[in-house]
Design a protein that fits this description.
mainly beta; 11% helix; 24 strands; 7-stranded mixed β-sheet; 7-stranded antiparallel β-sheet
């Protein structure tokens, strides 16, 4: 397991409740992650020593150690809505502490990483941005610094501790566990028609989710997930140590759906607590929203979907109330798939039938860790170019790849072994699709389909 992947002690959990979800804010937000341009610490036990190239950032009160971080923020447009400083405790004995430190802004932004010693250290003279309680070894923590980082510029943050049992954090020399400044901003929609992008079967102890999250860093729009957001059991710790450092950068613009692994935690409480109102009502998990000319429905294939069930009846009523000319839906278990690991889930057919009856245009699935595109079909899998719904299995978000079995009728394109995201551009009366592969891979698939 890589060092960024250890169980994470959660600094705080914020659950937002709302009666309705709106995609407009999420679709317009952009998230950018910065690493420090400089970081170091000083120690009054070695007053003339510089620690600029060290792999650690120490804080302590005996001997007194203070840490400094500097970030250069650029390329941010629109209003900054959220800035989080994310730091990771070192994976060594003694890195843990009962006091994770106090974080303050600094007026001095001209100090240099290789020039700072105890004797010439910059003053930690600004407002208190936040503090951490007890911190564990090898874990991520987060401090809200929105009050300080309000746009482009250079920002310094000083960290001190009142405890004689200090903490040790990873410095920028540590690579994947270097400090991060995650800036969410933007109130202007990206040019052109809205983009709707995502995948399922995402975060685990490997690096696949890192590769696909990097793709999202360069694609604006609303993010969807087709379930199994985190492995293996959907716990709060797994969400914070696996999902949060990668796809979590885009949480503010994400509209998820749950998978069976998310439900390995009773009631999928890790999932619902992590995403809050963005996941729909806790325990229900189905909801809808509009993007441009499209009505979008996120459904839950882990609860009852039978004809007459609460979810199926809600779906029919929701579709009947929509005034949008184009409709899409997504959930975890695929009705159509050629995957060898998971057979088609016929229990989902009543949901597909309701969508078909409402002349829906697009349905996305996950569950099988691969990519597959089907021609427009009716609920029994027959080719239907007049009213059929085009479907995609988009389970290539990061988890290990699955193979294919017998190729099902109407399967038009498929790939396994290339992680990626499915980018959908939602036009007024059609949609374009594009498989965007992880760095270093070449598989792609693209095309367009008109709405009914």
């Amino acid at each position: 397991m890589s060092r960024r992947r250890a169980p994470l002690a959660v600094l705080s959990t914020v659950i937002v409740t709302a009666a309705t979800l709106t995609a407009s804010t999420a679709a317009q937000a952009a998230t950018t992650t910065f690493t420090p341009t400089a970081d170091t610490y000083v120690d009054n036990a070695a007053t003339g020593t510089n620690y600029g190239t060290a792999g650690q950032l120490g804080i302590d009160n005996s001997s007194v150690k203070r840490s400094f971080l500097k970030f250069a923020v650029s390329g941010i447009s629109g209003t900054v809505s959220s800035v989080k400083l994310r730091i990771h405790t070192d994976d060594v004995a003694g890195a843990e502490s009962p006091n994770g430190g106090t974080f303050r802004s600094m007026s001095n932004v001209s100090w240099t990483e290789t020039g700072v010693t105890w004797n010439n250290q910059p003053a930690v003279d600004g407002a208190t941005l936040g503090s951490l309680g007890a911190v564990a070894r090898n874990a991520w923590y987060e401090i809200d610094v929105t009050s300080y980082v309000t746009g482009n510029g250079t920002f310094s943050i000083g960290v001190t501790s009142s405890s004689s049992d200090g903490a040790d954090y990873d410095s920028r020399e540590s690579g994947a566990t270097a400090p991060q400044l995650v800036v969410t901003s933007g109130t202007t929609p990206p040019p052109g028609d809205p983009v709707w992008v995502g995948a399922g079967d995402i975060a685990d102890s490997g690096s696949g989710d890192t590769a696909t999250a990097a793709l999202l860093d360069n694609i604006q729009g609303t993010v969807w997930t087709t379930g199994d957001n985190v492995y293996p059991n959907g716990t709060a710790s797994e969400f914070n140590s696996y999902y949060q450092p990668t796809w979590g950068r885009h949480k503010a613009r994400t509209r998820p759906s749950p998978g069976n692994h998310d439900y390995n935690t009773s009631g999928a409480t890790g999932y619902y607590n992590y995403f809050g109102a963005q996941a729909g009502p806790s325990g229900q998990g189905y909801y809808s929203y509009d993007i441009g000319n499209w009505h979008i429905v996120s459904l839950n294939s882990n609860i009852s979907m039978s004809a007459g069930s609460a979810q199926e009846q809600w779906l029919r009523n929701d579709l009947a109330a929509s005034t949008k000319p184009c409709t899409a839906a997504y959930w975890h278990h695929p009705l159509f798939t050629s995957g060898a690991n998971h057979a088609p889930s016929t229990a989902t057919r009543p949901l597909f039938q309701a969508l078909y009856d409402a002349n829906a245009d697009l349905v996305l699935f996950g569950h099988n860790h691969q990519y597959e595109r089907f021609a427009p079909q009716n609920p029994t899998g027959g080719l239907d170019n007049a009213r059929g719904i085009r479907t995609f299995v988009a389970g290539m978000g990061g988890a290990g790849a699955y193979g294919f079995g017998t190729i099902k009728p109407n399967s038009e394109a498929r790939n396994t072994g290339t992680r990626g995201v499915l980018k959908l551009t939602l036009h007024n009366n059609s949609f374009d699709w594009q498989f965007v592969p992880e760095a270093g891979k070449t598989y792609t698939d693209s095309g367009t389909t008109n709405c009914h």
